[in-house]
């Protein structure tokens, strides 16, 4: 096996594949990166058993400056190999395997020799055959992930909640996540044809996918099988396992009525929350209080720490309606929710001091909602 390639192009693809490789794995060969050299392309594969990423560098792509002298395959220690390639002196790098499973990596005057493993021992990629394909614009998919992953649970005690519940049905994509303290739900119109899918994709997988498609301009092709989902874009394949089990019914958690509502600028409210949390983070319970007085058209936010002091700030609102209310909540949950809306006006609806409340954008109230459970302080 021997090939020469532009080092920058090679590093870019290495970085993508490294997203799937973990140093903590019960399968030692998965700490390595699989390199398969064919007649006209080099295929890189990385996996941690949950996520598998495969990317292809082609001879026909002029930017890669790829020349192949001899096909072959090997598995090399991923982190060590990538650090070597990043620190090489020349703009091109040559990788060669002659005897057994030792790789020679050369660039300019530098030359490394590292031990690899037999590529035949690397686990095979999941097979997704005859599955229908749904095309999702990359920027839309990225937004849906970013707006919902904040509510994914980090507690392994309920594994199903560590994923994002994704449904394709009736020409609509619906994504929901909840950790039982907050919930994020996003709906977008999407041509799905006759296809109907209802799956739960690990939150970690979706986070890595969102990072990988940050600069992708075209559609992402989605294929779903019994226990795997495949996202295909550019020259990359991104596989993720699916979580087993039934995701809880979340639609009943979203209140349909409200006793108190407030409309305000998400960015300005976020800044006030960040100021209030400076003190709440110093306390034991990390809570801020929102007081709403519709009669006087006043909203106030406050936070305190027994050790440091307190903060109080009046909030400018576009509209306040309903009954008086005092409610306490985790400011980090509120901050995450507000960030997901960007620079827009949000409508926050409350039913009582102890019932979950919702945030929706005033211009698209049906398709995007964040829900937060308040904190009991008495």
From TrEMBL:
Top-level taxon of origin: Bacteria
Localization terms from the record: Cytoplasm
SMART domains in the cross-refs: POL3Bc
Alphabetical UniProt keywords: Cytoplasm, DNA replication, DNA-binding, DNA-directed DNA polymerase, Nucleotidyltransferase, Transferase
Domain DNA polymerase III beta sliding clamp C-terminal as annotated: residue spans: 252-376
Record has Ligase as a keyword: no
Residue intervals of the DNA polymerase III beta sliding clamp N-terminal domain: 1-126
Segments forming domain DNA polymerase III beta sliding clamp central: 136-249
One annotated GO molecular function: DNA-directed DNA polymerase activity
Record's keyword annotation contains Protein transport: no
NCBIfam families per the UniProt record, alphabetical: dnan
Sequence similarity: Belongs to the beta sliding clamp family.
Subunit structure: Forms a ring-shaped head-to-tail homodimer around DNA.
Protein task: Confers DNA tethering and processivity to DNA polymerases and other proteins. Acts as a clamp, forming a ring around DNA (a reaction catalyzed by the clamp-loading complex) which diffuses in an ATP-independent manner freely and bidirectionally along dsDNA. Initially characterized for its ability to contact the catalytic subunit of DNA polymerase III (Pol III), a complex, multichain enzyme responsible for most of the replicative synthesis in bacteria; Pol III exhibits 3'-5' exonuclease proofreading activity.
Protein name: Beta sliding clamp
Source organism (scientific name): Limosilactobacillus coleohominis
